[in-house]
Design brief:
Length: 489
């Protein structure tokens, strides 16, 4: 029974590691071969694509099988069949297989053949001798397996400290960059700080440079102003508002509070940024948040741009331009992965999986031209803008909508990333800005006064740029703040 119990628990543990391989060393080692194939599949070659498809299918089936094995093994084997009988035998000192005879009964107990020898530790001459090379084979397997498991576990553990990333030019002289890079890696890693299907995406964490409580990143708060009116400001956006590349007290919302405090205004700014959010998602979140116990705010700020463009790009890659629905980055990436799985099934079985009666196959639309894609992104943003404006009007808050700068909204800067398509992308960025709906403030030129490197990728910036954006924001909302300070709370 003890042996069966250990086997059951081992299977249960292995099932758990297969389902949560990111945060258990043994699980990481178990998926080493799949990860090697996955890394090979990242090569832009036909064989690499086939391997990538095989790995996606294997991981999907593995997770499902691991969950079934874990639940069934523990429920059906470990508890009722092993643990309870063992406890009964140990507590009551009963042997359920022992032969006995009741003197008052006419039944005659049938003799039981003992399969266990009377002296189990004595050599049985009839037993088959072990293979002479079995120990050698076992030793060779262990010698080969141990270094693979150790190296694979270290390689796959995802420890940010073990990843050597060159410090971007935008963070030259910032001794906190390495720590922030580790914190950001932790936040964006599934099963530690990242859940792409959760409302807030980022889970509550307490790190050196990133702290999230109640689903919102911490923001700098001005000191007590001695009885003055403290205005409540909520800032919605994606990862640029959340603050990739910036410490808690130096994100755009924090810098907005700091700039206002330097000018004599006391703002309680709340960072409502969620990485990956498009404007329609922010509008939905605001409509929900503003009707809660803490809402509505005095002023709400929306800061968008790149994610709305990326959503249109992903939908174009998926050939879904003809669908009349808002484009979510998370949704489109899920659909893309599912499409790859369908491609895998097609290659293996030669046709798509059978559909139910009356099913209509989905047709794909042709890819859009770059200029048409830019117009489609602005059109989707404008439709979402109608939703957010209606929610702001219904809650009685003052709303502001800003279009964010990106690397292509200003000229080339030494030390910032660059690519062969930069000139074409700068033209597309200019086209998008020319099509922005009325009432949207374009902050693309807010970084022009600086010639230093500010971007460390195509959209995320350092703390200096966050301060510059916040300064431009404050200049736009300052007249409204003056009016609100004069009104009775």
């Amino acid at each position: 029974p003890l042996l069966l119990l250990l086997v059951a628990l081992a299977l249960t543990f292995l099932g758990g590691t297969a389902a949560g391989a990111e945060d258990r060393p043994l699980g990481r080692a178990v998926r080493l071969p799949a990860t090697l194939l996955h890394r090979a599949g990242t090569l832009r070659r036909p064989l690499g694509r086939v391997l990538a498809l095989l790995v996606r299918a294997a991981l999907w089936l593995g997770r499902a099988a691991a969950h079934v094995v874990r639940v069934l093994t523990f429920s059906l084997l470990a508890v009722p069949a092993v643990l309870l009988p063992w406890l009964v035998q140990r507590l009551l000192l009963l042997d359920p297989l022992a032969a006995h005879h009741d003197a008052g009964s006419r039944w005659i107990t049938r003799a039981r053949h003992r399969t266990q020898p009377a002296h189990p530790w004595m050599h049985d001459p009839a037993a088959r001798p072990p293979h002479p090379y079995r120990k050698v084979r076992t030793a060779v397997v262990l010698l080969l397996a141990v270094p693979v498991v150790v190296v694979g576990t270290v390689w796959l553990r995802g420890d940010p400290a073990a990843i050597d990333v060159a410090q971007p030019a935008a963070f030259a002289g910032d001794d906190w960059w390495d720590t922030h890079h580790q914190d950001l890696t932790y936040v964006l890693t599934p099963r530690t700080g990242w859940n792409p299907y959760d409302w807030q995406r980022v889970q509550d964490v307490e790190l050196s440079t990133i702290n999230v409580h109640d689903g919102r990143r911490d923001t700098w708060t001005p000191p007590d102003c001695g009885g003055c009116r403290r205005l409540k400001v909520w800032v919605y956006g994606g990862s640029t508002i959340f603050g990739y590349g910036q410490r808690d007290d130096h994100t755009i919302p924090s810098e907005l509070a700091r700039v206002a405090a330097d000018a004599g205004y006391t703002l309680d700014v709340r960072n409502m940024g969620v990485p990956g959010n498009l404007h329609f998602e922010e509008a939905q979140r605001y409509a929900w948040d503003a009707t809660g116990q803490d809402g509505p705010p005095d002023v709400v700020v929306f800061y968008d741009g790149v994610n709305d463009l990326k959503g249109a790009l992903l939908r174009n890659d998926y050939r879904a331009n003809g669908e009349d629905q808002p484009s979510s980055i998370t949704l489109e990436e899920f659909r893309r992965n599912y499409g790859s799985f369908e491609a895998f099934l097609t290659r293996v079985f030669g046709s798509r999986p059978a559909s139910g009666p009356g099913a209509v196959p989905t047709t794909s639309s042709p890819p859009a031209a770059p200029d048409d894609l830019a117009r489609r992104a602005v059109e989707d943003y404008a439709r979402a803008l109608t939703t957010s404006r209606g929610a702001v009007l219904a809650t009685g808050a003052d709303g502001f909508w800003f279009w964010q700068p990106d690397r292509w909204s200003r000229g080339p800067v030494a030390g910032e990333p660059s690519g062969p398509d930069d000139e074409a992308l700068r033209g597309r960025s200019a086209l998008v800005r020319s099509l922005l709906p009325e009432g949207v403030v374009d902050l693309s030129d807010s970084l022009d006064p600086s010639t230093a490197p500010l971007f460390y990728d195509d959209v995320h910036t350092n703390e200096e740029a966050a301060r510059m954006v916040a300064t431009s924001m404050f200049a736009e909302i300052r007249p409204t703040l003056d009016r609100l300070r004069q009104e009775a709370p």
